[in-house]
Design a protein that fits this description.
13 helices; alpha/beta; Glyco_tran_10_N; Rossmann fold; 2 domains; 5-stranded parallel sheet
Length: about 500
């Protein structure tokens, strides 16, 4: 945290570590000396424990592929350049510069920041978790677009949830379905993943219940998050038995052989078989936002357990059918939810209805089926690109098309329309102000840790977004002036001039 005009402004955390590339493409290099990548700050990396399907994604190298509509045979020196700005995220290996041949056009892509001010550098691609207003590449050049890749939790960077923050970008790939290159189902590998037979039969689940297992599992070691999930679970525990194995609200020890896998996002076989014994899994995301759904939701369904879910407000839009998830917000109180779970625990016929989607004929959601069938990227599917390279090619094709329109307009402005600017909006990312997991915010004590962190972080992120927008509007080249611009905005607002 750092002081700005008498206020505390949080520094954004660093997210993902570097990745190997899915596709091997023809090598190109710049004549300038190549700059080393900046190392990730280990302290920042641990601050948010980012959740990303990328951590489980497999990468491989295959021969370069030219799209069927790509007739772009320009030399590397003629291609537009895409600059990956985030130090730890460049989806190619080895080197820091590659040529990519996409569906309809080709580009050079690089992580070498020396090209920032090049005329040929057409677009800068940012990783959302790493995007910091006080480190933005300034001045922002008129001929360059900005692209945002952000598949992680909204809590990692609330700047992107505010209008002034998200409209800095021209192209987006986020978990929101409204983004240009949606990543909504990134945690769902395939339809077959859902259709896998239940890992533990209902008969055996009932036997485990008789032997003392609670009906509900809570497995969480990342406490104090914007969704304030522990506050809700703590209240729910008053009305129904919950076995909690993680660091948050822990009331039961894990078997010793599972301790190293408890917080893993990977699907360790022993860990999976252990948690599959439970009828219900509390699946509460760390941040609340439309379309933000992680393995917390899909993994219980894969195993044949029933998720009790809070996260995306529109989660039902993506469910296999209208009877496959229990949504916490459908219940007036934790007590009402507990009563409903108890009734299902005691009625096998009603409980099993939540697992009928395991039969292909019972998957009736055409939106889900179409999205899985038409997405061009794959999750651990080596026949398809991963979504990092997919978005990169999306930006490449968009930029080549934009540049072609600009050339035509300059050549014959009367015959060709002027290029139309493209700008992201809140449907691409916007997430709401964090609220208490249970009860009203007025009832939360003033010294409550959650209250002192997340609502403030949300509004301070708006300050940073507005400050960066001001820097760009004034054509500033020094991002460290952000704090001064934030203070100036605050003064004007106090005087009623903003």
């Amino acid at each position: 945290m750092m002081a700005v005009g008498g206020r505390l402004v949080p520094c954004m955390c660093v997210g993902l570590l570097g990745l190997l590339c899915w596709v091997w493409v023809s090598f190109a290099s710049f004549p300038e000396a190549q700059l080393p990548l900046e190392p990730l700050d280990a302290g920042d990396r641990g601050a948010f424990q980012p959740q990303s399907a990328l951590s489980d994604m497999e990468f491989a190298s295959i021969s370069s592929y030219r799209g069927p509509g790509n007739n772009d045979f320009r030399s590397n020196k003629e291609l537009p350049i895409l600059l990956w700005w985030s130090a730890g995220l460049f989806p190619h290996f080895p080197g820091d510069t590659e040529r990519i041949d996409c569906a309809t056009s080709s580009c050079l892509v690089t992580s070498n920041r020396k090209v920032q001010l090049y005329k040929r550098t057409a677009s800068i691609i940012f990783y959302g978790t790493d995007f910091r207003a006080y480190e933005a590449p300034l001045p922002r050049l008129r001929h360059q677009t900005w692209a945002l890749f952000h598949e992680e939790s909204p809590m990692n960077n609330y700047i992107l949830s505010h209008g002034p923050g998200i409209r800095l970008f021209n192209y987006t790939a986020t978990f929101r379905r409204g983004s240009d290159y949606p990543l909504t189902l990134q945690w769902l590998p395939s339809l077959d993943y859902l259709l896998q037979p239940v890992a533990v039969s209902l008969e055996k689940k009932n036997q485990w219940r008789r032997e003392g297992l609670a009906p509900v599992l809570y497995m969480q070691s990342h406490c104090d998050v914007p969704s304030d999930r522990d506050r809700y679970v703590k209240e729910l525990m008053k009305y129904i038995e919950v076995d909690s194995y993680g660091k948050c609200l822990n009331n039961k020890p894990l078997p010793e052989h599972l301790e190293d896998t408890a917080t893993a996002t990977g699907e360790d076989a022993h860990f999976m078989s252990f948690v599959a014994r439970y009828k219900f899994h509390l699946a509460l995301e760390n941040g609340l936002c439309p379309d933000y759904m992680t393995e917390k939701l899909w993994r219980p369904m894969h195993q044949g357990c029933v998720p009790v879910y809070r996260g995306s407000f529109v989660v039902k839009d993506w469910m296999p059918n209208d009877h496959s998830v229990i949504v916490i917000d459908d219940f007036a109180s934790p007590k009402d939810l507990a009563s409903f779970l108890k009734s299902l625990d005691e009625n096998d016929d009603e409980y099993i209805k939540y697992l009928e989607f395991k039969k292909p004929s019972q998957i009736t959601n055409t939106r889900l089926l179409e999205a899985l069938n038409t997405r061009e990227w794959g999750v651990n599917d080596m026949s398809k690109p991963n979504y990092l390279n997919g978005f990169e090619c999306y930006v490449c094709d968009q930029e080549n098309a934009r540049l072609a329109v600009e050339r035509a307009y300059r050549k014959a402005p009367k015959q060709n329309p002027a290029p139309q600017p493209k700008m992201a909006n809140n449907s691409h990312m916007g997430c709401p102000l964090p609220k208490p997991g249970y009860g009203d915010i007025e009832d939360v004590p003033a010294d409550d840790g959650w209250l002192q962190i997340w609502p403030q972080d949300y509004w301070q992120s708006l300050d940073q977004a507005e400050g960066l927008e001001s820097l760009i509007r004034h054509n500033e080249s020094d991002p460290s002036l952000l704090w001064q611009h934030i203070q100036n905005i605050a003064v004007r607002r106090a005087r009623g001039k903003h």
